[in-house]
Design brief:
Layout: E1 2-6, E2 9-13, E3 19-24, H1 28-35, H2 41-52, H3 67-74, H4 83-108, E4 109-110, E5 115-116, H5 122-130, H6 141-156, H7 175-191, H8 204-215, E6 227-231, E7 245-250, E8 253-258, H9 259-262, H10 275-289, E9 297-301, H11 305-318, E10 323-325, E11 332-334, H12 359-374, H13 376-394, H14 399-417, H15 423-430
Antiparallel strand pairs: 1-2, 1-9, 2-3, 4-5, 6-9, 7-8, 10-11
Helix pairs in contact: 4-6, 5-6, 7-11, 12-13, 13-14, 13-15
């Protein structure tokens, strides 16, 4: 699969195929994933396994999973990131394969002798793994079983030249997905979150350097190796390509010239360039001036959800994107004004909802009301403030009198908070 970045964000595409989804520079997909509650995921996968296989003896129970069983497990991916709408099956296969292998390792590794006993043979492995899928409609489950048996072999019979795949013990369902969320949350907090203590005064490149120095102490520090293609035009599109063609007779034969053919020696001077080619060049220049142009094209070949997330954060760093968590919904959002505390998301994202209010509409009042409940002196102060302000409208207090009362009330409130003025006396004074 390919990730294509441009000035608007990125698209996730099949090779030479359609775009599966696009993400703008609001980065809503990654922020939704980071805010998703994944705490039930391990138990859900363990529950699915325990119907089919005894988790202690690893013997099949005889239960045959239905399509509903399988896709109910897959429905956990709903709404946590657009990636899963297209790649959810692959991620579910990965979760099943990793958890199955972890169960085998847990049940066979001798911590005293540092050996695996037993080492499960291919026949038993294939039969047991395939039993984890519904009987009908999964024609690729044999290939999936072979893939994860190969990983299992790399663990129990590692090649001296390669590090064996990492296995989380005790087995944890969806371990990779949980670790992705944790790693990306950490990266954003260290490098892009405007409220991170100790790092607020640093630029994003400086913060990235701090993050790198700290995390370089990890045995597997955060890094990514991917194939990147850079081009001055989209290699998969003909949208901006010139339709210029010119024919001429050379030695009695017709020769077709493209714009590149006619302008091939443009860098050596224009005296030998055909006038029609120069006219086409001028037309292209005018088109670009009007905004019809391509940016330098970048695409990455990606093979996992983690690579998608990592590359998005990498480009956020390149773009100097600053983020903070909304005080109302708790999700990250991109900030251009550091004083803004609330995002513009709808508080009810249901398409059929008639409530068009956003976090920025309701957040300040909710935050203040919550603060009142947690701060009793403030709650009594707020009540007295409304009472005294109403006296201005009723003629019982002048604006100057209210101003003086308000000033003294705020001073006493701070004294109560500092434990230099008795709270009960403060309440009595507020009622005057």
């Amino acid at each position: 699969m390919l990730m294509k970045f441009n000035r608007y964000g990125y698209s996730y595409n099949d090779v030479d195929g359609p775009s599966f989804f696009e993400e703008s520079k609001d980065h809503e997909g990654i922020f939704t994933f980071l805010a998703s509650d994944l705490t039930d995921f391990p138990q859900k996968l363990e529950g699915y396994f325990s119907k089919i296989i005894d988790l202690t003896t690893l013997k099949l129970t005889g239960y045959i999973p239905s399509h509903d069983d399988f896709w109910n497990l897959g429905s956990l991916f709903d709404d946590i990131h657009p990636y899963f709408e297209y790649m959810g099956r692959e991620e579910l296969d990965s979760a099943i394969g990793e958890y199955f292998n972890a169960l085998l390792i847990q049940n066979s590794y001798d911590t005293k002798k540092y050996i695996y006993s037993p080492i499960y043979d291919e026949g038993w492995y294939m039969d047991t793994f395939i039993a984890l899928y519904p009987e009908d409609g999964f024609n690729d489950k044999t290939e999936t079983a072979k893939k994860y048996y190969k990983f299992y072999q790399q663990i129990v019979k590692p090649d001296d030249d390669d590090d064996p795949p990492y296995v989380e013990l005790p087995p944890t369902g969806f371990h990779s997905l949980l670790s992705y969320q944790d790693h990306i949350s950490s990266m954003i907090y260290w490098i892009l979150d405007v409220n991170t203590p100790y790092l607020k005064e640093l630029s994003i490149p400086e913060r990235a350097s701090v993050y790198g120095r700290v995390h370089a102490t990890m045995s597997d520090h955060p890094h990514m190796v991917v194939v990147k293609q850079i081009s001055f035009s989209d290699p998969h599109s003909r949208y901006y390509r010139s339709g210029y063609k010119r024919s001429e007779i050379v030695d009695g034969e017709e020769v077709q010239w493209t714009i590149l053919g006619d302008l091939y020696d443009f860098h050596k001077g224009t005296e030998h360039i055909h006038p029609e080619a120069l006219e086409e060049l001028q037309s292209i220049v005018e088109s670009v001036k009007q905004g019809y142009f391509e940016e330098i094209y970048e695409e990455y070949e990606v093979n996992s959800f983690y690579e998608v997330l990592f590359l998005e954060v990498y480009h956020m760093i390149l773009d100097r994107t600053l983020v903070k968590k909304c005080r109302n919904c708790g999700k990250y959002f991109v900030v251009k004004n550091l004083n803004v505390e609330y995002c513009s998301r709808l508080i009810d994202p249901d398409e059929e909802s008639l409530d068009n209010r956003t976090c920025s509409d309701v957040g300040p009042k909710r935050f203040y009301m919550k603060k009142l409940e947690e701060d009793l002196p403030l709650k009594f102060y707020d009540r007295a403030y409304k009472t005294h302000y109403a006296r201005i409208n009723s003629g019982k207090m002048t604006k100057q009198e209210f101003f003086l009362w308000h000033k003294e009330a705020k001073e006493k409130l701070e004294m109560v908070r500092a434990n230099t003025y008795d709270f009960e006396e403060f309440k009595i004074w507020l009622k005057k």
